[in-house]
Amino acid sequence: MTLDQLRQELDQLDGDMIALMARRQAIAREVAAAKRATGYPTRDYQREREVVLGVRRRAEQLGLPGDLAEKVLRLLIRSSLTTQEQVSVAAHGAGSGRRALVIGGAGKMGGWFVQFLVSQGFDVQVADLKAAAPGIAAVDDWRKLADLDAFDFIVVATPLGASDAILAELAARRPKGVVFDLGSLKSPLRSGLAALTAAGVKVTSLHPMFGPATELLSGRHVVFIDLGNPDALAAARALFAPTMAEQVVMSLDEHDRLIAYVLGLSHALNIAFFTALAESGEAAPKLARMSSTTFDSQLDVATQVAEESPDLYYEIQALNDYSAESLQALADSVDRLRKAVAGRDPATFRALMEQGLAYLKDRREQVARRA
């Protein structure tokens, strides 16, 4: 066969694979309907394991790398699960006939939540200076709405710097529906949330532990802050019941102390990493020629952090009542490492490594049990 003929055959095979993937997605929707009818959970980990192992064996019999076959299959499984979850949310969503107001709904996370509520059948209205998504009713300022009692849910998805004042204003108007924010920190929102509680409003607080590009919620966490109103907490949790997200309930202070490490520490570590590189005097192209697997992996994460909003990341550090604790822990750890190296102290260096291995092994086992 000529080169052109070989390329034509590859093109045909590529088209066949796309058609098969489309067929697989169609069957995934049928599977979702069957699971819904029989009460089966959306995700069956045992079934996934069997399928993956079977595909690896089949690939190896055909002379293909098992890892390659598994990677492709996991992408297809993830796509199928996303389809099934979306079907489940639409089918079980309790929004039919109910209304929701999303203040800040034209932003990234606000926009995600708007679509999430729409998929459940809610009649959603956005209050934002920016234009809302096509087909979504919108006003530029929620204060212009005369009847807040018309909404079953009021979601505050504005920047942290503005959210506390909005919560306080909502408290003054005492809406009948459930009110919650989506803030990544709760320390800056204490007074507004307290005002809502004091006013007798059904209030809780959420922190979706994922970004606005997320489609599949399996393995993702949604944190719910218990502010002492069980009805509000139950109503907010029910929104995520049709999904595969893991729900975690905790207090405001527990949330922010943990976030100081989950977000604050990880952000600070990467900011310190790329700052050290930027100020090292070594040109990035030169470092790229000497890169290693570890360096490249760390650089990928640091690049993602560098591309985020400096204002938001500053708020996560500066507005958390517990930030000083995690930043001090980072500084102490770097100092111990520096002293171990400068003092030619292999025992201390080894102890740091072994302590980290034990901690991370436990963490890996927990993740493996979930995945």
Structure description:
The chain has 371 residues and is an alpha/beta fold. It has three domains: 3-91, Chorismate Mutase Domain, subunit A; 95-250, NAD(P)-binding Rossmann-like Domain (Rossmann fold); 255-370, 6-phosphogluconate dehydrogenase C-terminal fold, CATH 1.10.3660.10. The protein is 61% helix and 10% strand. The chain contains 13 helices and eight strands. It has helices spanning 3-38, 45-61, 66-92, 108-119, 160-173, 190-198, 230-239, 252-278, 284-289, 293-306, 310-318, 323-342, 346-370, and strands spanning 99-103, 123-127, 137-139, 153-156, 178-181, 203-208, 221-225, 246-250. The chain has an eight-stranded mixed β-sheet, sandwiched between helices. Helix 1 (3-38) packs across helix 3, helix 2 runs antiparallel to helix 3 and helix 5 packs parallel to helix 6.
